[in-house]
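Sequence in, structure out. Go.
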Amino acid sequence: MQKITTTIAIIIAVILLLVAALFYISHHKPELVIQGEVAANRVDISVRVQGRAVELTADIGDKVKKGDLLLRLESPALETQLATSEAQYRVAQANRDVVYSTRPETIEAMRAQYEKAEADLLLAKSNLDRMEGAAPRGGVSQQNLDVARNAFSSAMEAAAAAKANYELAVSGSSPQQKSLADAQVEQARAALSQVQSDYDALTVYAPSDGQVTVRVAEVGQLYNPGTPLYSLINMDNLWLTFNIREDYLNYAAVGDHFTVYVPALKKDVDVYIQAINPLGQFANWQATKATGDFDLRTFEVKAKPVKAEEGLLPGMSVIADWKSRHTAD
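Output:
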């Protein structure tokens, strides 16, 4: 009898323990801990033209400012192209000057001819006026009067021709020739500008502030266009990124604050949510039931430290108690 009672007591105790365990499991919600990573903007710097590295001024770990010199390349082929383009531009300018201008001695000769023609015209006009005045009195024959009139007409034509030649010498070539000369100068200038731009690209500068994290460039090495030589990371603009399933978002909103733990620094960091964006659909759907009644998407939550944290580096892991999230005070 006592044995049966003991057995019953043990069974009851086991049942009570099971009930207690089930109650605890059903009512206890484990702390939601989410792991994320520190990230930053990375700028990859490559060359635009082929060249051989001759000087490096930055190495891994160096902090640089926008516009700082990183390296110099050399390219004999580009130097030759630049010299050729400069010479072609000077030739085009010289040709345009020839079209637009006339030699001074030519202009002077045309001016002298024009002045002589004007003087001859005045003389012919004076002679004609005198004869026409004397003709009514019978002092001049009709033949001499006709000769004077023909001389005046010829002098007028000669003066007009001399004036046209003089103006042509002063103004230079025709408008069409000038337009062609101008176009040739512009063409040479454009070609020179392109080669100059390529030549300037042999000197590489930092496009932004940052810290050098990768240096591929080596002195003496020949690099083709598009080859990455440096990578910069802006250490002043770090953020944290978390991938969170949508059923765990729990009304999270931009501006909410929470605390993360940084194992590498062994300290807590206050952060706030800057953006919440859905990730791509590939590999981010998860069925909530075996029957696949509906699927859940994963969202990227981007957070930023409330203040700059010394020692925080891209790639460091961060751990957040997501349920500690609260709105800003």
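Check: Helices lie at 2-27, 76-100, 104-134, 142-171, 175-200. The chain has four domains: 1-28, 29-41+235-324, 44-73+204-230, 81-197.
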